[in-house]
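Quick one: structure for this chain?
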Amino acid sequence: MSIQKIAKLAGVSVATVSRVLNNSDSVKSKNRERVLEAIRESNYQPNLLARQLRTSRSSMILVMVSNIANPFCADVVKGIEEEAEMNGYRILLCNSGSDIERSKSSLGLLSGKMVDGIITMDAFSRLPDLSTMIGQTPWVQCAEYADAGDVSCVGINDTDASEFAIRHLLERGCKRVALINHDLSYKYAQLRERGYKSVLSQQGNDFEAIEYASELSFHAGRSAMENLLRAPLKPDAVFAVSDTLAAGAMRAIDDAGMKVPQDIAVIGFDGTELAEMVSPQLTTIEQPSRDIGRHAVSLLLRKIDNPEAPAERLMMGWRFIARASA
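Got it. Here's what it folds into:
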């Protein structure tokens, strides 16, 4: 369906349809409604290239995630897509795999003005490299909260959440709490480990056992837990920095002939659907994943509209969900 056919269907001029599509205030309300009704009836989709030529915008957002297979990342992307579409934008998804060359390839879209802005979920340590490549393009870092710098960001207080989880385990009577962490190039991994160590130190607990999973996957969590179980002094509780890692840990505990939570209590992180699918159901720290994605888009659109505006940092709330595993 072309703009000419929309005009014919609505009984107005092509210029009137164009003004409606560009949100011009000069269109009479009666004509605007006729055009909008014609658009709804015909399921008209404006030509993005034509819009880009008129407005110097592509109405596209580049979203770069490290691993779309991670349920938390997938939930955040759903929120990003929902909010973007509500504001007339579409997303281009790059599953970077934390690979700098793949990121460079995707960022090549910037030179052709194919996207108006970028949302990243990359490791905090990579921000300087990304900043050099992104330049002045509007940019928001998502789920990796930065308390300083020139990049807008949205996330949660990972340290507070981690501390709460460890205190819960100690108050439950656990004496040997282990941590299954991930890549310390991510700030969330650093902060959650900081919270773990801080509470143990405050409580005078000298047991510390940390395993670093090779990736945020079920199998990596299972392997990390198997390593913890090989130690002469086994943990009686485990805090994992993702629900997926926690699910793998629970499988390793079961394979070893032990029970959750009777022998080893387990707490995860993220609050994904997976936490309710495992048995016993997983105690976890729930992040507002979709809202994080939605707010990342809001921050980005404000930056697109006002490129000179200072960076904004949004700290969102989190929720502790107690279930059978701890």
